[in-house]
Design brief:
Number of strands: 12
InterPro entries: DUF7802 (IPR056704)
Keywords: Membrane, Transmembrane, Transmembrane helix
Strand order of the largest sheet: 1-3-4
Structural class: mainly alpha
Largest sheet: 3 strands, antiparallel
Radius of gyration: 22 Å
């Protein structure tokens, strides 16, 4: 085939995968190298748990990977939601947009949270919402320190991420909850529909299980987006209500559903004696929350230099329409205006003369800024980490066990 020339294949491979020396990351962006390596370790823990239990746990792990690939790919190539840029890690994919370790962040968060939520032994209609709460509990300290540490950057004027919490878009929390609950609904719902079994462990054949993996991987995104359509877009876009309010409403709905279901627990939901909980999942969440406390205490973001792809710079007056799921047309600036922007977690102080990059650039260096109030960040991240650890301790240490072969699940 003429189109498959050596040059075209080489160009594709250069677009598909790129590498960066670890020493370069360590010199300019040390916390990013640390989180990349830690992510691979955490992902191995989740895979080991899935492999040890086998059956549907393995298929759940791969469904989450498929879901992550779908979310990340769509986010880069659909203009209306292309609003963030990852920092450059050791291995980059898809035109240097997707760090390899980000793919494995999905099982680190979603698999861990899903296994922990399943131990509550909630009815099928409540478990997805416990899953969503468990994911956002892990996410809050990660999101706060991630943006402060320049592990990624956000579009400056996109209306869907304009409302912030320590520079984290409130919609990020909404995203984590809604997409996690949707994944849970689809993986368990497709299993029940296609195999007639709601077991967490007993596989019903590779073909049917892979169909469930594909369905979950492809359709968790649109099902999660449906929650935005039902709650976020009417309140935010039509009634101009702050996104913070939308998130708290969603959290309250999730808590009420989980709390209501947990008032009448399954027989296996309460251990009659203490149980060992520091398995792969317990170890992961313990290390996860301790990591962010230590990172916040010891981090010096003013020393960070993030070199890579960022929001394109250009004409400060150019605008681009943003089409919402409700059919409205909003607006954002087409380019980052380097002389007038509102992203206080970075600037240009580490560049020669403190001068910003020229217009028409996508690959440039940004400089981290010091904590405006370091003590406040320590208190906030520590508080959210301890709350998250407490929630996981309740699920992992004071609830039921993972379903194993030979143990039938009580029907809800």
């Amino acid at each position: 085939m003429e189109c498959l020339t050596k040059d075209s294949l080489l160009k594709f491979m250069q677009w598909f995968v790129a590498f960066r020396k670890p020493i370069d990351i360590w010199s300019n962006h040390s916390s990013y190298l640390i989180i990349e390596i830690v992510t691979y370790f955490f992902a191995v823990l989740t895979f080991r748990h899935a492999y040890r239990l086998g059956g549907r746990y393995m298929f759940l792990w791969f469904a989450i990977i498929a879901h992550g690939l779908t979310v990340e790919s769509v986010s880069y190539f659909v203009p209306d939601i292309d609003n963030f840029w990852h920092a450059q890690s050791m291995i980059m994919l898809l035109g240097k947009r997707l760090p390899l370790h980000i793919i494995f962040f999905y099982p680190v968060f979603l698999y861990t949270a899903g296994v922990a939520a399943a131990r509550l032994k909630l009815p099928f209609w409540a478990e997805p919402f416990a899953h969503g709460l468990a994911v956002v509990a892990m996410d809050v300290p990660f999101d706060i320190m991630g943006i402060k540490s320049l592990w990624w950057t956000w579009h400056d004027t996109d209306p869907n991420i304009y409302d912030r919490h320590y520079w984290v878009p409130w919609t990020s929390y909404f995203f984590h909850m809604s997409f996690a609950s949707s994944l849970n609904i689809l993986i368990n719902g497709s299993r029940k529909l296609l195999t007639g079994s709601s077991s967490k462990i007993e596989s019903k054949g590779c073909f049917k299980e892979m169909m469930c993996v594909i369905i979950t991987g492809l359709f968790s995104f649109p099902l999660g987006a449906l929650q935005f359509v039902l709650l976020y877009h009417p309140l935010h876009d039509n009634l101009h209500i702050h996104t913070e309010v939308c998130v708290f409403i969603l959290v309250a709905i999730y808590i009420c559903i989980v709390w209501n279901a947990d008032r009448n627990p399954d027989d296996g939901a309460r251990p009659k004696k203490g149980k060992k909980w520091l398995d792969e999942i317990g170890l992961l969440v313990s290390l996860h929350f301790m990591l962010y406390i230590l990172l916040t205490v010891n981090s010096k973001p003013e020393n960070i230099r993030s070199i890579g792809l960022h929001e394109p710079t250009g004409n400060c007056n150019a605008t681009t329409p943003v089409y919402t799921a409700m059919g409205q047309v909003l607006s954002k600036k087409t380019y980052l205006c380097t002389t007038e922007y509102d992203e206080a977690y970075y600037d240009w102080h580490c560049l020669t003369g403190g001068k910003p990059p020229k217009d028409g650039m996508e690959w440039y260096t940004i400089c981290g800024n010091a904590f405006p109030n370091h003590t406040e960040y320590i208190v906030v991240v520590t508080a959210f980490s301890l709350i998250g650890l407490f929630y996981y301790w309740q699920m992992c240490a004071r609830s039921g066990k993972d379903q194993t072969r030979g143990k039938k699940m009580k029907k809800s």
